[in-house]
Amino acid sequence: MRRIRLTATAVAAAVVAGGLALASPASADPTPAGTFRTLVGVGSDTTQDVLNALAGDTVNGTDYAGTAVKSGDAGLASYDAIEPGTLSTTSKITTRKGGSAFLRPNGSGKGRTALTDSLVGIPFQGTTDVIKGQVDFARSSGGPGVSGTSLTYIPFARDAVGVAVKGSALQNLTIAQLHDIYSGVLTQVNGQQVKPFIPQGGSGTRKFFLAAINVPDDSTVDRIATVVQENQADDAVKNNGDLVPFSVASWIAQNNGIAPDHSRTAVAGGAYLASLQLPGNVTFTSPVAVKTDGKLTPATDFYNDATFGRDVYNVVPSRAIDPTSVFYDKALFDVFVTSGTHEAKLASDDAEGVIAKFGFVNEPYNGSISPTKHAKFGGLEDSSISSALPGTPVTKAVTGDGSLKVSWTAPAATGLPVTDYRVVLTDVNGAVVQNKDFPATTKAFEFTGLKAAKYTAKVTANNLVGGGAPATVTTPVKFVSKTAATAAKVAYGVTPKVAVTITDTHAVSPTGKVTVSEGTKVLGTGTVVNGKVSVAVSNRLSVATHTLSVAYAGSSTLSASSASVKLTVAKTTPTVTVSHPTTVSHTAKAKVTATVKATGIVPTGKVEIREGTKVLATGTLKDGKVVVTLPVLRAGKHTLHARYTGTSTTLPRDGANFTLTSK
What we know:
13% helix, D-Maltodextrin-Binding Protein, domain 2, 11 helices, rod-shaped, Immunoglobulin-like, mainly beta
């Protein structure tokens, strides 16, 4: 790979040729004063000027209103890390009409803390300034400081961190030398006494640089190096041997007259960006190249280097860019996120033209929210906030007609309050059927229009830190069936039949079993075919009106259902026949055989032989027959008939008259 190295003289000459000496100090914050916009951003010095321009404000005398990034009427409001003009680090800002004033978040870390405190609704930076809802995104030149998933770091450009120096002795520097200088071990380079400077605490550039040279970012560094405001060479690089880490994009933008100048005096006095020995190289690489017109441009090799090249980010609440979340912010998503066919407004040609002017390199992953494409995830960045996740809610499910109603109760309080509940419904294969998010006030939801199948519902309680362990309930969902039954009146001894019809509202052909019972006694069962079945029950039911229960057991698609039906069993009507002699001696006793029959039963009981209404003799049926011996009849012709007296199940019945002559 080709390595570019510029001398301090060449860089200084390019700076002057690029018009730095003519640059007029100017800065942003939404203009004019008192302007309020929808999407409020604070934090990094490194990206504040390009975000100010992308917001459509005037930056260093150039009006960017024509290329302002918006989602509908929702525009960006980017507030500087320090007060424009006065450069005060203790001034306050008000980001919403009628909102509370709070200290300017100075640097990436403070910006992320402000975003965190805005989400939680607590005071910022140890003040009494409660800033709930005052910040929507944070500018950050570095990745997360806390692990977690609450915040999404969306890359939008590539930067690099170099070292601004003065004096030819520092023209070429190695990582080892930088490590030793910022560890307090090395005090001279090429015979030149060195004086290190370091950006303020919370600066993304400070954190990134110290990590690149393998120096822990702790209080030791502050004792060795003088703390200065990030990306302002005028206060740091005044004498030979002075050096300070610096955003290369910021250096380019200031030197090309694009961004407000905080380095003109230093450059005029000989300050420049040193060439660094990148890992694996024997030569030294300048962070910048010089065009023929004297303007500075990024040195591709330096920006692409894994040690000193870096992505810069816009940090947003993860839930705000999740279209399934109740906290979804479409404007925030439209402006910052590239996903699928959706392109972030910050990734438009106009926006990337502005980004390039400010010394950054445009990358194809602008707006990515995928870790495979440079996005990162982090936790809430305020040590005063509990990191405890919510507990598991208590959950139950009730099924209906192709529906599943899931209800839950809040878990025991832990850490931050629950903000929402996520309910994910999956099928038997684990595929997501529906994914729903509900505000904390919601305690139930009914999924409707489901197919008949087994489902698993997982309910997770979320707070701003993340989601707790889910409650899981698995249950089959079926369609509701309706059972109807009829039964015709029957005589005792005749087998009753209960006609059953199973219906539903989903064009299902019902199948399954039907059971007919009286009380706890099962009287009969049947198999449903095409929604119908006739169930035969006992023909020995007592003579009465019976209330029968008809229970449909359901099927793989239909739920169980039941009905009741009235079955009337009446006494059976028998037939009575006799066989007899036609004559008998007036001194003999005639014998008459009576036969009683009825459908389905063998009648029992008594048979009387009568002459008119007079009972002559009585016999008891056995196997439906009885031989009755008559008394001696007086001589003459007698008209007789047999009468069956009936039972609890059989009606009384008279047989036909017959004639018996006594001689």
